[in-house]
Design brief:
Metallo-beta-lactamase, Chain A; about 20% strand; five-stranded mixed β-sheet; Rossmann fold; about 425 residues; alpha/beta; 12 helices
Length: about 425
Amino acid sequence: MLPSAVRPDCAVAVASGVHWIGALDPDLRSFDIILRTANGTSYNAYAVRGSAGVAIIDTVKASYAESFFRRLESVAGYDEITTIVLNHLEPDHSGALPELLRRAPAATLYVSHQARPMLKGLFDPAEFEHRIVAVGTGDTADLGDRQLEFINTPYLHWPDTQCTWLAATGTLFSGDFLGCHYCDPRLFNDAVGDFRFSFEYYYAHIMRPFRAHVREALDLIEPLPLRTIAPGHGPILRDDPRDYVRRYRALSAPSLHGADSKTLLVFYISAYGATRRMAEAVAAGAEQVGDVRVSLYDIEGSEPQPFVDLIEEADALLFGSPTINGDAVKPVWDLLSSLTMVDVKGKLGAAFGSYGWSGEAVPMIEDRLRRLKLRVPVAGVKARLEPTGDEFAACRELGRQTALHLLGRAEHRVVDMASLT
């Protein structure tokens, strides 16, 4: 049995005038379907007392609302609440918001400009229209002897996300940013168990696709005189909070090659060798261009995860698959599904492959690439059974043209609009 720092229905002091009033969910084993939560999670919410009123920062999942309200009531009366801040609209943070607004009729709700039009998904905004204020970086909410300052941090991990800074105590209420799914009743990072795996797992699955936005947010947060980071999930970071900021900086930094280098990756799987030979021709065509690093990977029997780092850093991704039973083969789909973990928007993509009867794999892969926001400027290449000399030439041209597009050297084309229908 772990020693508990959280008594039922009691708030926990975080800093002077700041209390945790959230909820613990130790039995949760998956979050948003895709995340494993072996240690459960916490829904962190906070009360901040100033000389001119109390602010509530975030709420909890609706099923934990009563616990949240009882903890809130242990440190503040509803008539004292002048300010409600929602750093993120996702239901695990906003579940108790409508009821809180009803119980605290004098409170003003502060959300980001991006969140303002999304509130209709939570309640009828007309009910609270006159009480909603949209804020951006540098805007403040006054609590008398202390102020809350807002920091716009979009796409961490929704467009609406923001952080809230309390300079009086050096506390950053960071929302999902710098948090993790890890439930421990001891609550603080210097008291709980080892949660490093959960911290990095959370980054990999939630923040990694938005690492450019992570770096932008860090640029705003690093200059702050941080004493405590109070995230929306997981341990409150009171011991060396900058260590976690530094870790995010390292995780979000480009790491595999210089910024000026262009990389093109060719992934393939082959049943009888035809698609493999096509992949070799594609790679050879790309190498003819020069100034592009070309790598070739046979993914048969491989797990997708080792390729994720390569994909994140690459500039062009080409996929070769045979068509079996009217479809691309499973290892290709497994690898493509892993692309949701990283930012691939704007990268170049292409497809090729051998087939026996119908050849659906190539257009299906191209469609998936476009839906993942990759650009597919060069039409794929299909070959029935064993490729001919002309088809190998087309593969080399596919690689060459993709490399030229990557370097901005491709010739402008006149598009036949009839071909697009």
